[in-house]
Amino acid sequence: MMSNKVEDVSEEDVQRLAEFIDTAARIVVFTGAGISTESGIADFRSPGGIWSQIKPIQFDEFLSREDMRMEDWRRRFVFQAEFDAAPINDGHRGVATIINSTKGLGLITQNIDGLHQRAGIADSDVVEIHGNGVRAACLDCQSPMSLAEAKTIIEQTGQSPRCGRCGGLVKSKIISFGQPMPQDKMVDAERLAMSCDLFLVLGSSLVVQPAASLPLVAKNNGSRLAIINKQSTPLDAIADFLLPSSIGTSLQKALEKSALGGSSANI
Questions:
Q1: Dmax of the chain from CA atoms?
Q2: pLDDT tens digits for 179-193?
Q3: What is the reported pTM?
Q4: What's the CATH fold of domain 1-40+88-130+182-267?
Q5: How far is C-alpha 119 from the geometric centre of its chain's CA atoms?
Q6: Residue range 124-183, pLDDT digits in tens
Q7: Residue ranges of the chain that CATH labels 3.30.1600.10
Q8: Which of 69, 93, 103, 130 is catalytic?
Q9: Hey, what CATH topology would domain 42-85+131-174 get?
Q10: N or C terminus of the chain: which is more exposed, having fewer CB within 10 Å?
């Protein structure tokens, strides 16, 4: 069922993944940092990742301290430049092929980089359970603000941006440490997990809760579970298919053999 090496994608693995895709009628894709690292975006949580190099800013620090708000915005603009420079990879294209097909129920992602939308998936088909790092909004009235507008305000005033509508604090739409998870997003994610017959995990360690519980929700409602991730996960024992390989390579090859016809290469 597995390849012996992370670098290898055997013909047997590819064919089996293609069969999983072809026999499914309702597919939910769940992505983590591993799909974006294939575009050169650094992982946040893994050993040697971003949070091992800089201390995360807590949500209460953002609310109470202007210096922490300014540091948070400085980081946002650095990350934004990295996201903008990152190319869409074959994994993103493959996910778009699945989600935009008649089989695709929706995409649940832990990523904040917006690359799935750049690959051609509509916002309405993406559940961003950890938020979005390329957009901002008022914490009080939810009025949107672009990062470019926020940067201009900071450059002109030397202060963190405030909402032009209500005067509230504006923050990027990521979910910070200590910030409550968006309940509506988790409800949407759980609804998708309960409705699919194939739950496809791509590039997630499945250790960050509550997101890591979603594959269990799918399995408990009769779905098959497929995991493509270079490292082992706590849910490997209950998976119907495991592949410790490159997401882009394995998914593209499987789609080329599936009834979806390899249209991912044309996105």
A1: 60
A2: 988 889 999 999 999
A3: 0.89
A4: Rossmann fold (3.40.50)
A5: 13
A6: 999 999 999 889 999 999 999 999 999 999 999 999 999 999 999 999 999 999 998 888
A7: 42-85+131-174
A8: 130
A9: SIR2/SIRT2 'Small Domain' (3.30.1600)
A10: N
